């Protein structure tokens, strides 16, 4: 029997001494399973049906089973099998003839008043690992022993709200109804990949909030489904608010595992005569389900990271959040400063990826941000008159929408911030900062590169990040006129969205996109050649059960929408021979430029070490050579040459500019080399002079001529010479350059070095500030630590 990702029932009831016992229909020979679970949400009919089916299969399986060592003592109550670290339970050597009747452990036993109880084991993909019977997977009857692994629902944290809710459900109202979900396709339990490399897969899986390891089947499905263009649907549960907790709200939703959520309806105690205090529940399965503790990064990396990668390869991608008001859509899309949401993380990721690839082409990022408010489209980046939607070759576009070029994450953030200020938000009873409009941020990435034949390849990918306004009930929000009109419009457009989803799912020819502005704008995302991700946001509050159920229902429907097979928006511009030559030349020039920059850096390094040596030797003798000083002095900010605005430079001008830059660079390199040579010569000359002087003095001494200073020792040493040398321009021996220029001075510290050239710092409140280092006799040496930076700064205008 195939093991479903859905819950399976493995129980029977038997009155055994007045107490309810659970029958585990599959039992092992070596390890006997006895674990009762409380998940009583299957209908009796379905339970019996699946039980009968299971029994039949096991029976026929057992006929062919050999090597069964069935011992009578096995009929005793087997021990509760140990769960593995994933909460999985192994059932080995299944033999259908040996069903066990196990007592429910006291901690799991429901209220004794209950007559009915169901036990559910959630099986995980791949739940079956066939050891001796690989055909088991194909739903055929095994003729040998098999091993099955069942992943049980995670044990609840007793302190969490979930745990409390669970307790209520177990001990409180009886659960008698269960809407059996439609069997989800196997692939729905896994996150579909967007035809990307294994690197992305690894990352995504690492990020999965439940931290379970990815099994091989998962990988296989992921890669095989990468060609599939089904909409990916994720669900995110927001945490219970303090206010809600204080108001005594209960959690009606539970994230069962990494893809499933379970919705429970709590009956109102006294008045619900029809349901007789019964509860209803429903199980939903999505590509991934995020627990309330899931981080923004978890959500981003699982839902959108692949999309960003695909957009860079020239495909279109859309992410939209759907859900009731106050369910956390804006939090997911925008987030806060401390925990930025999908929009911000996507932009950051985009730019970091562009930076990594910048070596092989040019990327141009353009941005637009609009809102649909009360069925009018408005530009959020340059507010003005409402925009009109038009259909052209690219699809539906808002005529006159401003497009901004952005070159860094910061620029995008600034634009985003500006747009959000212009967005319509109002406090409602349900949410203090309720978004009253649907906001769409569109990022277009144009990528231009050349192939081997120098043809221009132009790829354009578009990423749409959509924060929908919340669906709401009239009572949930204010009754003021404007708010209710807004609410009605929001609901109308969401209804139109639902109709489109329905029509798409049913495969209708006519999709009513024109029913609202929102659906017109989402046309591309829903049925077009686009990778689409939908994040359904839900609240745990049981008072919003209806809205949560609605959201989950539509999200479940949306899973079945298939987009058109996506294609890369790529354009190949063939160039003529002369153009190709020019392009080659440009590439060569660029390469040369790079080489020159490397050379320059090397020369600079050499120059600096040389300068350090020469400064040490000439500390007191000669002033810093002017060219060195000019390098070491930071250029004043107002004199600094502005960076070449490459972003706006057209192609031929850019080429011209790069040639000029190369010429300039070559000139700089030549100048530096010349200066270096001169310094070397100077240095050698000075050393020679010093040696001559020493020789001369030694000769004089040997002739009996005393040195000028009588107080000094008669022996002439280099140090004795040094004391007389300052400011005289006298030379020293070559070995002098390695000696400290001022031996008597206190040892120079880090601050001495870094602040030696800094403008004087004053004493603050009598406290010595860093300026005290200037009190020392300075050698006039510039900061060594700052040199590379200054040198770079000075040379930066030449950089491309
Ligand atoms: N995952 C989360 N973690 C922490 N706080 C959250 C989370 N999701 C939502 N919230 C908080 O819940 C509140 C409502 O969220 P948000 O404004 O995002 O809802 P919304 O669905 O956008 O509502 P509306 O449709 O009315 O705009 C906010 O205060 C937000 O900070």
TrEMBL record:
The record lists ATP as bound by 323-330
Task: Please name the Pfam families in this protein's record.
Answer: Kinesin (PF00225)
InterPro entries (UniProt xref)? Kinesin-like_fam, Kinesin_motor_CS, Kinesin_motor_dom, Kinesin_motor_dom_sf, P-loop_NTPase
Keywords, sorted A to Z? ATP-binding, Coiled coil, Microtubule, Motor protein, Nucleotide-binding
Molecular function terms in GO for this entry? ATP binding; microtubule binding; microtubule motor activity
**Superkingdom, according to UniProt?**
Eukaryota
Question: SUPFAM superfamilies from the xrefs?
Answer: P-loop containing nucleoside triphosphate hydrolases (SSF52540)
Coiled-coil stretches: 586-613
Stretches assigned to the Kinesin motor domain = 230-561
Please tell me one Gene Ontology term that the record gives under cellular component: microtubule
- The annotated region (Disordered) lies at 1-22, 100-121, 618-659, 721-740, 761-800
A Gene Ontology biological process in which this protein takes part is: microtubule-based movement
Gene3D superfamilies on file = Kinesin motor domain
Family the UniProt entry places it in? Belongs to the TRAFAC class myosin-kinesin ATPase superfamily. Kinesin family.
What protein name applies here?
A: Kinesin-like protein
Lineage of this protein's species? Eukaryota, Viridiplantae, Streptophyta, Embryophyta, Tracheophyta
The gene it comes from is LOC110789476
